[in-house]
Design brief:
single chain; alpha+beta; Bactericidal permeability-increasing protein, domain 1; six-stranded antiparallel beta sheet; two-stranded antiparallel sheet; 2 helices; 10 strands; elongated; signal; Protein takeout; Haemolymph_juvenile_hormone-bd; biological rhythms
């Protein structure tokens, strides 16, 4: 007898109300931080109330499963054509010889997002039914093309806004690299909560067919 894991290939933007998600989007993260350079004049930025849209178009492009009586391991490859994000930002320090202390609106467009997710779970029984309990979730991601910038810089500092946008778009991949540890940690928290809700309400048998 062989078993296979059943996975949906595309998200549903209408949400999953039975799991407490009336809407899939936007994905909201509380805040992220980046720091460039050291010393008292190093550039630091904080992004708050980050809202990301486009995640519901996710597709599963690869799935590997390792099943045993006491553990389930899943490796998923995911693809998202485009994610758009906006946030409030506040920065301090010096950037390309310009005093970059200020605040305003941040926007970003991320195209060609690829992610790999590893899930480890253990089966357990409740009233004769098997469910899964999440033990570990890890993920990593890459972005092919990035466009991002800032608008509405406080005090109408057009020189600062132009300098920031020039730097941001000239160094977008490097900035993403600086954001990545904090962003990955936040995304793992969001994904873990989502997976835990699914595992708690959907029996193990619903994921696996003979």
């Amino acid at each position: 007898m062989q078993s296979r894991v059943v996975a949906r290939e595309k998200g549903d933007a209408r949400g999953l109300p039975q799991l407490g998600y009336t809407e899939v989007e936007p994905i909201v993260l509380d805040e992220l931080h980046i720091a460039l350079g050291g010393g008292p004049n190093g550039y630091k930025a904080q992004f708050k109330d980050i809202a990301a849209r486009g995640v519901s178009s996710v597709r599963i492009t690869g799935l590997r499963a390792r099943l045993s009586d006491d553990e389930v391991q899943l490796q998923l490859a995911l693809s998202i054509p485009k994610i758009q994000a906006d946030a409030k930002y506040r920065s301090s320090g010096t950037l390309i010889l310009v005093q970059a202390s200020g605040a305003g609106d941040y926007w970003g467009e991320y195209e060609g997002v690829k992610a790999k997710v590893f899930i480890r779970a253990k089966p357990y029984a409740v009233q004769g039914q098997q469910f899964l309990r999440l033990q570990q979730l890890k993920m990593d991601f890459t972005v092919r093309d990035i466009k991002m910038g800032v608008d509405n810089v406080h005090d109408g500092n057009t020189i600062l806004q132009a300098a920031l946008n020039l730097f941001i778009n000239s160094n977008s991949q490097e900035l993403l690299k600086e954001m990545k540890p904090d962003l990955r940690r936040k995304l793992v928290q969001v994904m873990s909560t989502f997976v835990e809700k699914i595992f708690a309400q959907v029996p193990y048998d619903a994921f696996v067919t003979d």
